Amino acid sequence: MITVIFATYAAGVIASLFLFGALSDQVGGSAGAAGRTRVLGA
Known about the structure:
Layout: H1 2-27, H2 31-40
């Protein structure tokens, strides 16, 4: 059961990182775009 809770927490953290990265791109931060490009390999 603890594994399920931790997996849910980890998925939420990863999702929030992508969300705030996209939000920072909208505001004008370019570090998020560079980081996502490296992670996605595009």
